[in-house]
């Protein structure tokens, strides 16, 4: 996606083969979850558990694949690379819910804030302080494991700035495309651009969460797509992302379908939580 794309470049994506069915399937799954009797009384508890599972999933995709109970049990996430990744995922996931108002006006400001939260507690030798909370400059590289290694070119600083500006304009203007399509594009664009020197995956997945929260599709944050992406596995995630980065109609449709599947798997997690709460097991 580039700055000189049409005013609403997302609507054609919503019409790609398979995408309307994906959108409808996700809508049905989310509506079914919201209609669960437990959601009428204990939605806050379900949302809290969904956020925890989402953060765990996002961290797993960034190389820290811890058991859910270990994430739940721990209080100190400052010792070791994996623990710091878990802590960063928890912080950015928690921030997503409180970012909606600012996101609607200045999405890039929220992205900077998310990166600041993710990277600010790095140990000495981690992300240099001057790179935290701002997009990469010319000559700066990305210091984190890359998805689809070798398949996705790292944009230079000039292209990065132009595409971030295009994404910002699109989000501020709004799109008639379904929420899933917008969320998938925001997620895929940020993963492809890798705008920061570190923690791009965590930021991209938190941005997807913000879009789903703010769009009305999942206003309570109970469909943790991050958990779904983790369940499908890093290899499938990387393969789908390569499809997005290719820019082809088929690749874009496959990425949107992958994101839709992740939301549905997140819904399944929360339905299980609802059932456990109903039985008194959680």
TrEMBL record:
Residues 106-258 form the Fido domain. SUPFAM superfamilies: Fic-like. This is Oxidoreductase. It comes from Streptomyces xiamenensis.
């Amino acid at each position: 996606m580039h700055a000189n794309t049409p005013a609403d470049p997302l609507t054609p994506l919503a019409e790609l083969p398979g995408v309307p069915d994906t959108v409808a399937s996700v809508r049905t799954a989310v509506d079914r979850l919201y209609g669960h009797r437990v959601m009428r009384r204990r939605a806050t508890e379900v949302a809290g558990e969904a956020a925890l599972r989402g953060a765990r999933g996002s961290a797993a995709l960034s190389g820290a694949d811890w058991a859910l109970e270990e994430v739940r049990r721990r209080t100190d996430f400052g010792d070791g690379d994996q623990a710091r990744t878990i802590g960063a995922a928890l912080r950015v996931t928690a921030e997503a819910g409180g970012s909606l108002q600012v996101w609607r006006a200045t999405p890039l400001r929220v992205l900077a804030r998310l990166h600041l939260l993710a990277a600010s507690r790095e140990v000495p030798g981690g992300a240099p302080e001057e790179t935290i909370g701002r997009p990469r400059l010319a000559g700066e590289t990305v210091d984190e494991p890359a998805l689809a290694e070798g398949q996705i070119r790292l944009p230079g600083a000039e292209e990065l700035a132009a595409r971030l500006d295009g994404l910002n304009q699109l989000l501020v203007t709004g799109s008639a495309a379904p929420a899933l399509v917008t969320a998938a594009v925001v997620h895929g664009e940020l993963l492809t651009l890798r705008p920061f020197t570190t923690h791009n995956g965590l930021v991209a997945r938190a941005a997807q969460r913000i879009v789903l929260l703010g769009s009305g599709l999942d206003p309570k944050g109970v469909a943790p797509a991050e958990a779904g992406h983790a369940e499908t596995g890093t290899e499938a995630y990387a393969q789908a992302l390569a499809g997005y980065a290719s820019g082809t109609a088929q690749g874009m449709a496959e990425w949107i379908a992958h994101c839709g599947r992740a939301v549905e798997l997140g819904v399944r997690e929360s339905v299980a939580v609802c059932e456990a709460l109903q039985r008194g097991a959680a």
